[in-house]
Design a protein that fits this description.
There is one protein chain. With about 230 residues, the chain is α+β, with helices and mostly antiparallel strands. The protein is about 20% helix and about 30% strand. It contains five helices and ten strands, in the order H-E-E-E-E-E-E-E-H-H-H-E-E-E-H. The strands form two sheets. Strands 1, 2, 3, 4, 5, 6 and 7 form a seven-stranded mixed beta sheet that branches. It starts with 12 loop residues before the first helix and ends with a helix.
């Protein structure tokens, strides 16, 4: 009898890279010794400006005649947490000529993508990147998190009821750090340290209009925990 796969509770590394590239508002392109800061991606994401292709595909010039290039991205938390840098993504490859930021689109032979975050460094190949889907929440994440903090701050302590093991003594505050199709991440801050905890949704979000009901399901679960413990919601 085949064992059923465990339900995913967090994005894969390839999904994180794909989502960061999809919703990026800016990137740094390093090519031929020059740094080009591309600050307005016009809602198309990085891949609207840089088209990645497999090595030697599409009848491009030989690799020896191409220019090495590096695309750099930073993923910054939209809320005012301590250490707002959530991840860095670097994509390397080859261009037919030094990057020209006046061009609307550029083709790049893919070399590798690297994700660096609190869990370490991970390499993602082109096949993994192409098979991964952007997170349906990614484009709205910043607005949803800031709305939670600015307009419904009283709900954050409620969500803490779901944190196991319970937060250690000395916690100064808890702030939403991230939200993805699989759940919410809270950053628990202490005087000299912090730790992140994930609160998985009952089921992954496949479309953005499912996010609200999943958040409400988390809050309902937290209220039930509060009730069992005899603590106020």
């Amino acid at each position: 009898m085949r064992l059923s796969r465990l339900r995913a509770t967090r994005p894969t590394r390839a999904e994180r890279v794909r989502s960061i590239l999809t919703v990026a508002h800016s990137m740094t392109v390093v090519s031929d010794g020059r740094h080009a800061e591309v600050r307005r991606l016009d809602g198309t994401g990085a891949m609207g400006r840089i088209h990645l292709h497999a090595p030697d595909g599409g009848g491009h010039a030989p690799s020896a005649q191409r220019v090495p290039a590096r695309l750099e991205f930073t993923d910054i938390a939209p809320t005012s947490v301590r250490d707002r840098l959530r991840a860095r993504v670097t994509v390397t490859g080859l261009l037919a000529a030094p990057y020209d930021d006046t061009e609307q689109s550029t083709c790049m032979e893919f070399g590798q993508a690297v994700l660096e975050d609190a869990e370490g460094r991970t390499f993602v190949d082109l096949e993994e990147l192409e098979e991964a889907e952007p997170d349906p929440i990614a484009a709205c994440e910043a607005g949803m998190l800031t709305h939670l903090v600015d307009d419904h701050a009283e709900l954050v302590p409620l969500l803490l009821r779901l944190v196991l093991p319970r937060p250690e003594r000395g916690m100064t505050r808890a702030v939403p750090l991230a939200m993805d199709r699989y759940g919410v991440t809270l950053r628990l801050e202490y005087a000299r340290a912090h730790r992140d905890v994930r609160l998985p949704f009952p089921r992954p979000v496949t479309e953005i209009d499912q996010a609200g009901p999943q958040i409400h399901a988390l809050l309902a679960a937290a209220r039930r925990v509060s009730h069992r413990n005899g603590l106020p919601a």
